[in-house]
Amino acid sequence: LPFDQILFKEVTVTSGFASTATSWTAAMRMIEAEQVQLGPLVTLQRPLADFRAALAAVERGEGLKTVLVP
Taking a C-beta distance cutoff of 8 angstroms, is the pair 44, 67 a contact? Predict the structure, then answer.
């Protein structure tokens, strides 16, 4: 999108990442209050030493969340 259209035609630009500071604060409060279960979101858990294999799985689109455990 040309920058002049944003400035002179008052185009509103938004991103697809809808998180705000307020939504992050609300999410953290819900997690702390155990109102949401995060465990089901973790589809792959690997030791930190296996980070290359874990990264390869992420790049292939396998799973939802990958956790590296120190």
Answer: yes
